[in-house]
Design goal:
The protein is of the alpha+beta class. It has 2 domains: 191 residues, no CATH class; 113 residues, Alpha-Beta Plaits (2-Layer Sandwich). The chain has 10 helices and 4 strands; from the N terminus they run ααααααααβαββαβ. The chain has a 4-stranded antiparallel sheet, with helices on one face. A hairpin with a 6-residue loop joins strand 2 and strand 3. Helix 1 packs antiparallel against helix 5. It is elongated, with a radius of gyration of 24 Å.
Length: 306
């Protein structure tokens, strides 16, 4: 029962919420002003504007070949959730069709329509659903070309917005492109969450103190390496750890307090395997190569070098 609740009931609930939000964003913000979404939904919006056919029906029909393509790669669970998401999205589009648009200010339409659409689509993607087959096509094409999935999707969308510019005017294409960038950023935040991993590499003369402070304040252990400066020939300590997005300001403060001369880089992490990202309640390891004694909850004091 717990497995059914975890793998089906909870995901389908949030997919439904996402479909409601995404449909509301389209019908109450974007569609009345001919501002397009990307991918198959954008193509459906163009056809609907020109032919008068229902947007919800077009979205399902045009996505069928891509959903079947994704089923071959991702399996039955993907197929069920994708079909459910598209049906829920189509029904909600019909429900919101006759409602009056929220605002007639195009800048508000772009901003809030993009944010709401990103939240809705992000929820659907996070819980295993799918509204657009463009990503599936891009996954297959990326194996045979030198472009990433994101680059291929962007190329498709530029073509769609170019067509929109020819049909509805260049300002519609520009508004649509701006909406796309807002939506994409919000999708990333919702899909990955604020717990998205960040890798941090720190080059410092005070590795032990910084590692102790990171452990005591954030509960993160560091991996220590040794490096040599190519110009100064000095031996440096190189620390590597993985944190979350919300912990970035905290680790910057730790570095500034401990060693203002330290060099630090922060990068996105696409995937984490294992328990490197801790929960808020964590059990300290029995032994750590970087922590040989209990550390205080205060930032370490480092004597400046003369």
């Amino acid at each position: 029962m717990n497995k059914i609740f975890k793998h089906w009931i909870v995901p389908l609930f949030f997919i439904t919420v996402g479909a409601v939000i995404a449909a509301f964003a389209l019908q109450e913000f974007l569609v009345p002003f001919k501002i397009l979404d990307g991918g198959i939904v954008g193509v459906s919006m163009i056809i609907s504007q020109l032919s008068g056919l229902p947007l919800g029906i077009l979205t399902i029909v045009l996505n069928i070949p891509f959903v079947l393509m994704g089923f071959r790669r991702l399996g039955m669970r993907f197929l069920v959730k994708a079909i459910y998401a598209m049906v829920a999205f189509s029904v909600c589009l019909s429900l919101f069709k006759d409602m009056k648009e929220v605002t007639d200010k195009e800048i508000l339409v772009v901003a809030f329509g993009g944010v709401l659409l990103g939240i809705g689509v992000g929820l659907i993607l996070r819980y295993g659903g799918c509204l657009d087959g463009t990503e599936i096509v891009a996954m297959f094409l990326s194996k045979h070309v030198e472009f990433s999935v994101g680059q291929i999707v962007l190329f498709f969308n530029i073509i769609i917005y170019g067509v929109a510019g020819l049909l509805f005017g260049p300002d519609r294409a520009l508004y649509s492109l701006l909406t796309y960038f807002i939506t994409s950023k919000v999708i990333d935040i919702v899909e990955n969450g604020m717990e998205q991993g960040k890798s941090v590499m720190i080059i410092t003369d005070h590795g032990k103190d910084i590692a102790d402070a990171i452990y005591s304040q954030l509960g993160r252990t560091c991996t220590q390496m040794e490096g040599k400066g190519m110009v100064s020939n000095g031996i440096k300590t190189v620390l590597y750890c993985v944190i979350t997005r919300v912990e970035v300001p905290a680790i910057k403060k730790i570095i500034n307090d401990a060693d203002v001369s330290a060099f630090m880089t922060i990068s996105d992490v696409s995937e984490i395997v294992g328990n490197h990202i801790k929960k808020r309640k964590f059990t300290p390891p029995k032994a750590s190569p970087m922590v040989s004694k209990p550390v205080s909850k205060q930032s370490p004091k480092v004597t400046p070098k003369k």
